[in-house]
Amino acid sequence: MHRLRQWLAGAAAWGMAAIVAAGCTVSSGSPGPGPSRGVLPAYGTYDINAQPVRKLREGGSLVLPVAQMVTQFNFHHADAAVDDVWTIDTMTEPRLFLRDAAGEPHRVPEYLTSATVTSTSPQVVTYRLNPRARWSDGKALSWRDFAAQWRALGRGDQRYLVADPTGYDRIEEVGPGAGTHEVRVTFREPFTDWRELFTPLFPAAAYSTPEQFDSAWREALPVTAGPFKLGSVDRTAQTVTLVPDAKWWGSRPRLDRIVFRSLDPDAALQAYLNGEVDAVNAATTEAYQRLRTARDSDIRIGSAWDEVHITLNGAGGPLADRAVRNALQQAVNRPALADVAAEGLPVKVPLLDNHFFMTNQPGYADNSGRYGTYDPEAAARTLQRAGWKTAGEGKPRVKDGRELRLRFVLSEGTNRLGLDLAELIQQMLGQVGVHVDIQKVPPEDYGPHYLNEGNFDLAIFRFTGQTYPSSAYPVYRQPVGQQVFENYGRVSDPEVDRLLGQAVGTLDTQAARSLYNRADAEVWRLGHDIELYQRPQLLAVRKGLANYGVPGLGDVDFTKVGWMK
Questions:
Q1: What phi and psi values does residue 335 have, to the nearest 5 degrees?
Q2: Proportion of the chain in helix, strand, coil states, percent, rounded to 5
Q3: Of the candidates 51, 135, 140, 449, which lies 20 to 30 Å from 32 by C-alpha distance?
Q4: Upstream peptide bond of 200 is cis (omega within 30 degrees of 0)
Q5: Where are any strands of DSSP class E within 11-60?
Q6: Ordered strands of the 24-27 beta sheet
Q7: What pTM did the predictor assign?
């Protein structure tokens, strides 16, 4: 799916989501368009220095920092649902739809000649594949690839460690259509965001068994069908290099190579200033102040689907009690944290009062109620009623002889902003008698060994790219056995599942938005997490780089990225 996960307080704090078309640029040396609490760019704004391909020179390299070294290249695997993997996979595997700057999906003609709903009762989607589209092993793309992906993701087979089955789990059957290059997908239940499915599309030849789903994609791209292919993986240099695929039947990429280099945030910033990488996050106070006057550099600004939150682990311990989770929601001063995130930036950082829609996205509504309102006195009363008694000023509350202590897990690669936010949250919760221990862990372990395993009480990170609201379903749905989807805090409720199940299958856009907002109010009531703010998009980009930068709500077409002549 298109949902992307970023560790805000981990090594990927500087990572960017996928990218697409043009807008407002702050050139090097400019102080920016206004004070730190200025105006967030309007809905759909983007800035990539959009240029026609004819104005770009052929060849050249692009070096981009990534959060951590990619070890699992299967984006649908539970250990790989992050945007660095998404970016690589959509350059090397079929991406059937490309989203524009407003988040609207459009079919990619190199893969699809058409894709339409050909029946509504039941819902049937018929895909007509481009006959030229072939895998690197020479086989044509076919219904068998769609079927293998559906069976892996949508059949509930626990042997497949799936990040997100949403949509796939509503499919009844995948089979051939009327012609050789036609695919017919029949749904058991309607799914409004059907264009989100099968992007990226993976090959049946390396996706048909649980072993292939897991092992075949470890440090490898066994079969590809994109404009790029894997050139090399250098564990010593911590780089993944993609190069144009000579078998690609579409327009040849302008670049000779794209190198993804694993760097922590501070190292990435310094590497950019040294001319070693060509883009870096500028959305923190320190980064922006250092980068806005950098030589040979632009600051590109826009707004995307990018939210920051604190996940609360309700699977056990004190946070298994909803009252305690609700108390934490009211004990955290969200406006103060947004102010810290905005300090020194040329745009404001708006609070988020919705889990499914961004502040600049149709459907957005404030459903937070009292759970999103800073009220430490109410938080203290709630804890007292829940049996957590005051033990004296500066001491953790006590219940049944236990102290109210929580573990806030951070990556050792945390940037300054992530650490500042964690320490402020620690202080805020301490004021109501909740003791928080901050534990730093290796960046490569943060996802698989802490979030995925529920080995934390508090964790702060981002979801990005969820312009399809159905993408958020697995974040809030009830876990099934050991399959938690992306509900890392294991906080769920049948009513949320019911509302979201209706929303993802409602073909009427306005009705679906209403259902998502009703579900959102329930998510706030449950104390699933503490939603914080919408992260502004500021990216320092090397001058002369075209068709790359800040995405709006869209995707990047890397075949059109290149250097001006």
A1: -60, -35
A2: 30, 25, 45
A3: 51
A4: yes
A5: 24-27
A6: 24-27, 297-302, 537-542, 279-281
A7: 0.77
Give the distance between the most distant pair of CA atoms in the chain: 75
The CA-CA-CA angle for residues 82, 197, 257, to 5°, reads: 50
Length of the chain: 565
How far is the C-alpha of 143 from the C-alpha of 184, rounded, in Å?
A: 8
The answer to whether the CB of 386 falls within 8 A of the CB of 402 is: no
Burial of 218 (0-12, 13-18, 19+ CB in 10 A): middle
The letter for the amino acid at 182 is E
Residue with tokens 């030229």: 132
- Counts for the chain of helices (H) and strands (E), in that order: 13, 24
CB atoms within 10 A of CB 424: 15
What is the rounded (10 degree) CA torsion for 173, 473, 45, 18? -70
Sheet holding 182-187, edge to edge: 112-120, 123-129, 182-187, 171-176
Give whole-number Cα distances, 276 to 225, 300, 445, 541, in Å: 30, 19, 27, 12
Q: How far apart are alpha carbons 393 and 432 in whole angstroms?
A: 9
Residue written as token pair 């989501």: 17
As a whole number of angstroms, the distance between CA 330 and CA 340 comes to: 18
Q: What angle do CA 354, 357, 359 make, to 5 degrees?
A: 80
The helix/strand/coil state of 125 is strand
How many Cβ atoms sit within 10 Å of the Cβ of residue 331? Answer: 25
pLDDT tens digits for the chain (565 residues)? Answer: 444 445 443 333 323 222 222 233 333 332 233 323 334 454 447 899 999 999 999 999 999 999 889 999 999 998 888 889 999 999 999 999 999 887 889 999 999 999 999 999 999 999 999 999 999 999 999 999 999 999 999 998 999 999 888 899 999 999 999 989 999 999 999 999 999 999 999 999 999 999 999 999 999 999 999 999 999 999 999 999 999 999 999 999 999 999 999 998 899 999 999 999 999 999 888 899 999 999 999 999 988 899 999 999 999 999 999 999 999 999 999 999 999 999 999 988 999 999 999 988 889 999 999 999 999 999 999 999 999 999 988 899 999 999 999 999 998 877 788 999 999 999 999 999 999 999 999 988 998 899 999 999 999 998 988 889 998 998 999 998 888 888 999 999 999 999 999 999 998 889 999 999 999 999 999 999 999 999 989 999 999 999 999 978 889 999 999 999 9
Q: Are 299 and 30 in contact (CB under 8 A)?
A: yes
Degrees to nearest 5, angle at CA 40 with 466 and 300: 80
User: Is 88:67 a contact under the CB 8 Å cutoff?
Assistant: no
